[in-house]
Amino acid sequence: MNQQKQQQLDELLLHGLESLDLTQAQFNDAIAKYEAVGRCLAAPGSVLAPYSPTIYAQGSMAIGTTNKAVGRDERDIDLVCEMVLPVTISQAEAKRLLGQCLMENAIYATMLKEKNRCWRLVYAGEFHMDILPSKPDQRLPTPTALLVPDSALRRWKESDPRGYAAWFKRETARSMRQSSGGIRAGVEPAPQYLSVWDKAPLQIAIQLLKRHRDLRLNGNDDAPISIIITTLAARAYRGQDSIIATLFDLLQRMPLYIDHDENRLPFVRNPTNVLENFADKWHTEPQKQRVFNQWIEDAKVDLNELAAATLGQSGESLKRFLGECHSNSALRAYGDRMQRQRGAGLRVATTSGLLGATAGRTSEVAANTFYGASELRRDRR
């Protein structure tokens, strides 16, 4: 793939994700709402106050890879409520206390839904927040290691969301395009907002892979979970500056980073907590790994078709990574920019749709002066 084609695809994907990603107003609203929840939980006299609760983002919200859900406008915001709990309080009791505290608030009581191991606050038409109880894991020297309830509330399970976010930040920093305002390595009560145009290629690629999974496997309970996709992608990433090049490389290399234990069972280890296996369900539900492997192959086919398509043909291929609405939005945004460039004295190559400097007839070969994704990022700041 030549550089012009690569830059064109990068820009189309960025435009599409722009309409999928959180806006700064939405991001700030989510932060304000979950900080308000934290103040409620820690308020003097609350049932949780004796346990010093602290609430913070985990998962995609913490690392800048949040997507809009397929078919609806709501987004999932995953939060942790860390508490200093005595050993006499079980995981089931910790969850019950968290729910009781939320239920005692007149506002949150009307929005509250119980899930297997957490509580959900539903902000209709905006997002929902899943709040997971947790406590520090004293067995490990890592200050951010946690214990959280397993899905059946039978035991405490290992985790480390803040340590993971710091590790992921270090992986994204391998990109030359990572802005100086990226996710900070230190433990922060709230992540910093980044627009699509300021994110690293790794973050963008993970958003696109998760979106492709959601579109391909919508409703399939065996679809690969986001933390597996994110971890394998971050480990496989080799610092490419191009989004499309990053996607090609990740799809080839991600399966190489699935480890196996002494019993040859699959292991996707939390890089900051050696006791946590993100692929533990693959042991008892091996079809989940088969679905993952098939999804990787399907994504390779779809990416190759996107790379081979001309601009006029790219709509169908883009839909597989963005969905119809966001694919159309990307093409419109790209077309609008081409019109502006024409007005500025640049022209569009007739066969590819790529931009070049005006020189003679429009059918002549364009000089390689494409105003690509890197420049667009700088221009939009």
Note the main attributes of this structure.
two-stranded antiparallel ribbon, alpha+beta, Beta Polymerase, domain 2, seven-stranded mixed sheet, 381 residues, single chain
Quick recap:
With 381 residues, the chain is α+β, with helices and mostly antiparallel strands. It has 14 helices and 13 strands.
What report would you give on this structure?
With 381 residues, the chain is an alpha+beta fold. 44% of the residues lie in helices and 15% in strands. It contains 14 helices and 13 strands. The relative contact order is 0.14. About 10% of the residues have low confidence.
Number of helices: 14
Total strands:
13
Structural class: alpha+beta
CATH class of the domain at 24-160: Alpha Beta
| Backbone CA Rg | 23 Å
In CATH, the topology of the domain at 24-160 is named Beta Polymerase, domain 2
Helix fraction by DSSP (H/I, runs of at least 4): 40-55%
The fraction of residues assigned to DSSP E strands is 5-15%
Q: Give the overall form.
A: globular
Low-confidence stretches: 176-188, 348-373
Helix and strand succession? HHEHEHHEEEEEHHHHEEEEHHHHEEH
How would a crystallographer describe the biggest sheet? 7 strands, mixed
> At the fourth CATH level, what is the homologous superfamily of the domain at 24-160?
Beta Polymerase, domain 2
The overall average pLDDT, rounded, is 86
Oligomer: single chain
